Amino acid sequence: MTTYRSAAAAHPAAAATPTRSLADLAGLPVIGVSLGHPDTISAEHWLASLPSAPLLACTHLVRTPRPHVALSLVFDHPTPGAIAGADSVPAEAGEECPVAAAEHVARSSGRAVLYPGVEKLVGTLSVAEILELSAIEKVEVLGGGEADPAALVDTGDFVRPQWRLGSLTLTTTPAAGGHLVPFETRHPTPCCAAH
Amino acid sequence: MGHGHHHDHSFEAGTDVPPALDLSVPDGELSPSDVSRRGFLRNAGLLGAGAAASVLATPSAAVAAGLPHSHGPVGGGQEKGGFRWLAGDHHIHTQYSSDAQYRVIDQAQHGHAFGLDWLVITDHGSNAHAKIGVEKVNPDILKTRTELPGLLTFQGLEWNIPAAEHATVFVHPGRNEVAVLKQFEQTYDGSQLPATNTEAQNEAMAIAGIKFLGEQVKARKVEGALFLANHPARRGIDSPHEVRNWRDADPTVAIGMEGAPGHQASGIKAPNGRGGARGYYDNNPSAASFAGYPLESYRTWGGFDWMTATVGGLWDSLLAEGRAWWVTVNSDSHVNYLDQSERGPGSNFEANGKYNDPVYTGTVNTGAGDFWPGFYGRTSVGATSFSYKAVMDGLRAGRVWVDHGRLIKSMDARVRAAGDHRATSGTPLGGVLQVRRGTTTELTLEIDLQDKPNWAQFIPVLSRVDVIVGSVTGPAASRDSFVAPDTKVVKSYEVSPGATKLSVTYPLGRLDKPFYVRVRGTDGRRTQPGLMGAAVDPVGPKLDVIGDADPWADLWFYTNPIWVLPR
Questions:
Q1: Is residue A81 predicted with pLDDT exceeding 80?
Q2: Which of the residues A130, B319, B396, B476 has the least number of beta carbons within 10 Å of its own beta carbon?
Q3: Contact predicate B364/B101, CB 8 Å
């Protein structure tokens, strides 16, 4: 398996800027784009290749016309040169995906790859630190409600919160050593080597 | 049924719809008792589409009890409740899988030594397997049958279900076993279908594949063929409607799913173990996943798959419809924990359809996630004799309980009319008891507690047994439903320390509406309120810890259900 660069690591300049809150981004247009990526890994690759990183970028699982991963993007400037000279997406960059944009705007679903503070979520951090350092609004334990603010999370330098019920929520699960880990791991077990 | 020496306990489903359920028969042509039954079912919302494919239509499916009769000294298992309980595993890989390594005889003789009476060889469907492996493995299986006459060794394969997860598919031994499996794999395996297929086309191919298997049985090419969905919730791609579609495609073939996945060693803490997720359940939703599944569905709970572990969840939603759908546990053995062998050097899997025989390495593999067949989990089937057919019939009838780490020794669970304690009466697991409305019924449960050490060298201690009951409410409004709001734990029994047996009778009351009952038990070491709330399941299985899930310190057993329906 090839190791891929995270989108955050691809844009070290982002680390220098102070963490903005999600409220600071309110009002900026949300662009939905569908490039037919089969999975989140390839969608994140594409994201990392953009010349200018979005402030907020989420992946969305879209069923039609066939299952694929779309993205919703929020740029610092309403008309980013990163994607095009307009709010809409030009044909060569894929198709507009209103569903992805709508999910993002409604904060109903979508998995955040780039968000304010993501570059600070490395190593082991407490739940309270994650909430303070990043735009993540809630940390939950799978099947167990809200996480204890003092609980320690081994981030694995890979933290992908999701929009759920209006909040950017990081779901975690209990892990070895009494720590928590984000629900999503960077390298989940492939289903089998045969196909 | 019910006499002493009857050999055909097959599930005659789908074809003989009882008059009360056959809406083409007008009320006026029904017998008075059928009019009464139809009226009852109509009032209960149980008439209509779907009813014909449920236990409501084919109660004889599982009523077939029969008395025990053995066929000579061959074979193991233990007598209990009128059946010979044969322990098995329907999910095992060999050197004919690109991600595995053992010979058939390696898996078979370990499984047999660890107490299994039957097992199924299920190498992955693939180009190499469809062209070469499916045929080449057969002589190895035939030889194993000769060398280990006390073990029933089935040939099967692990089907890449089009548009979904994997499934065990296996057939009764016979001269066409390879031909049927080969044609099935070449026509219906996901690896053999065009990548341009739409989701709808692939879902249709899955249904066609199950029907194909049923047709081979009807054409007498093979004596039986079964399908069981493997690790169903692992990646969220077995949607509820697909599960229902498979089952309805042919309920004599598609009979159930893994209640717990294999790979139960994969959560053992590093450095002594792999330090991963129990069952390799560490995935997250993908574009192919069913969007309605919560994140909870992607992890194991007390080692079991979310579909089974959640009281009032997906499995119960099927049972509440009257859909017979059974659960099993298996090893999914590919490469085993603490083994000291590896794939043979100089192998060319693509060219040969197999790896060379494994070789001893002298090093201990602590990174492997699997147990040998029989070492940890077992699927106990109530059979009427020691035979291939009896195992398939017992599985099809749902006369099955499963456990991890040999938590219990044996059990006899039956539902009866209250007060009838004759040894020969009562409806066993998987069965349907039909009684007049108003009849009082009860569950009688007799569990022989474990008195022998398991393969981790300790005697497991059963701590608690839960009785779970749900109303049968007929076909769900949506085929993507995965909740059964009326199903819950109704009674828990604490097991006294030092007891050798748990014998309890749970009163099920006077029958006023159809229902089912199933049983679960645990060593009680890891519990939390169930996902549907403490009122539904106050002490359910706990979410397994990533990187620190000791499988021997968290043991459960589950039974399949028994239905009680108005006559």
A1: no
A2: B476
A3: no
Q: How many CB atoms lie within 10 A of CB A1?
A: 6
Query: Tokens 């397997």, residue?
Result: B129
Quick one: pLDDT at residue B442?
97
What does the pLDDT look like over B202-252, one tens digit per residue? 999 999 999 999 999 999 999 999 999 999 999 999 999 999 999 999 999
* Upstream peptide bond of B149 is cis (omega within 30 degrees of 0): no
CB A181 within 8 A of CB A173: yes
Pairing of strands A167-174, A124-126: unpaired
Number of C-beta neighbours around residue B118 at 10 A: 29
What is the second-level CATH architecture of the domain B78-378? Alpha-Beta Barrel (3.20)
Most confident stretch, A1-5, A72-76, A153-157: A153-157
Three-state DSSP string of B11-70: CCCCCCCCCCCCCCCCHHHCCHHHHHHHHHHHHCCCCCCCHHHCCCCCCHHHHCCCCCCC
State the DSSP H helix or E strand holding residue A188, giving kind and residue range, or none if neither: none
Domain boundaries in chain A? 19-114, 118-182
What pLDDT sits at residue B236? Answer: 97
Cβ pair A184:B528 closer than 8 A: no
Question: What is the rounded CA–CA span in Å between residue B55 and residue B64?
Answer: 13
Say whether the peptide bond before residue B529 is cis (omega within 30 degrees of 0): no
- pTM score, two decimals? 0.90
List the single best residue of B96, B274, B282 to mutate versus A (max A Cβ within 10 A).
B282
Q: What are phi and psi of B301, to 5 degrees?
A: -125, 110
Residue A126 amino acid letter: S
Six-digit token pair at B137? 């493995």
Q: What pLDDT, on the 0 to 100 scale, is given for residue B4?
A: 36
Give the Cα separation of B431 and B453 in Å (integer).
31
**A81-to-A42, A51, A89, A138 alpha-carbon distances in Å:** 22, 9, 11, 33
**CATH number of the structural domain B409-566:** 2.60.40
Helix (H, G, I), strand (E, B) or coil at B161: coil
CA closest to B284 among chain A residues: A184
Strand order in the sheet with B408-417: B408-417, B440-449, B501-510
Phi, psi torsion values for B352, nearest 5 degrees: -100, -10
Cβ-nearest to B299 among A40, A142, A177:
A142
CB-closest option in B124, B284, B546 to A176: B546
Counted residue by residue, chain A has a size of: 195
A70/chain B closest Cα distance in angstroms: 9
Among A41, A155, A173, pick the best mutation site for testing chain B contact (most B Cβ within 10 A). Answer: A173
Domain ranges of chain B: 78-378, 409-566
- Is residue B31 within 8 Å of residue B52, measured between CB atoms? no
Helices and strands in chain B: count of H runs, count of E runs: 12, 23
The DSSP secondary-structure symbol of B201 reads: H
Please name which of B112, B78, B100, B12 lies closest in space to residue B357, comparing C-alpha atoms.
B100
CB contact under 8 A, B283 and A175: no
Strand intervals (E) in B216-280: 225-229, 254-260
Residues B389 and B396: beta-carbon distance below 8 Å: no
Residue B100's contacts (CB-CB under 8 Å, 6 or more residues apart) are: B93, B94, B123, B333, B334, B335, B355
Give me the helices (H) in chain A, please. 13-16, 22-25, 40-48, 98-106, 127-133
The DSSP string of B494-550 is EPPTT-SEEEEEEEEEE-SS-EEEEEEEE-SSSEE--TT-TTT-TTEEPBPPBT---
Q: Which residues of A touch B234 (CB under 8 A)?
A: 191
Non-local CB neighbours of B8 within 8 Å, separated by 6+ positions: none
